[in-house]
Amino acid sequence: xxxxxxxxxxxxxxxxxxxxxxxxxxxxxxxxxxxxxxxxxxxxxxxxxxxxxxxxxxxxxxxxxxxxxxxxxxxxxxxxxxxxxxxxxxxxxxxxxxxxxxxxxxxxxxxxxxxxxxxxxxxxxxxxxxxxxxxxxxxxxxxxxxxxxxxxxxxxxxxxxxxxxxxxxxxxxxxxxxxxxxxxxxxxxxxxxxxxxxxxxxxxxxxxxxxx
Length: 212
Fold this sequence. Notes:
By secondary structure, the chain is an alpha/beta fold. The chain has helices at 10-14, 31-41, 72-75, 97-109, 120-130, 148-157, 172-179, 194-205; strands at 2-3, 45-50, 56-61, 88-93, 112-117, 134-140, 164-168, 186-189.
């Protein structure tokens, strides 16, 4: 993808994929970080060619896929609903409205009731009032103002044992490089499917958490 815009200087190019880095007054700096995580998660690579006054060219490269015979047992996989949990109240923390609405529908298909927050601050207020009812928290990792990891730590300081699942475009290896080898209850790499969500919930439930 190429444009004929103003281009970028080397210092800006070097920071292009940093979460929350932006040159726009109203920007949030999450778009390119999410794209980078998704591409890396598929074994790909992004090349940026840009100079001030010369526009920008973005090349996204993916490894070639060899044709693979699909095992018979995987041609008709078990449905997500068949492995869903037993329901309960979920706190969903996501600043992107479209994603928030989509994931809320996914939880509904798995038999959960959902209460939503669009920021870490709002999530803390809700959690303080409803923590006795909440069985699970699913939070975006990179949000303006407060990260999902910080939010999890605050919930733990509130003497809560509720499991907190984090989600972002980072693949697990890049997540560890960016944030260190912190122990978390669960992680979902965006984009994910209903089945991926259901499997992870089942795994968290099978750890013996008393909330389920």
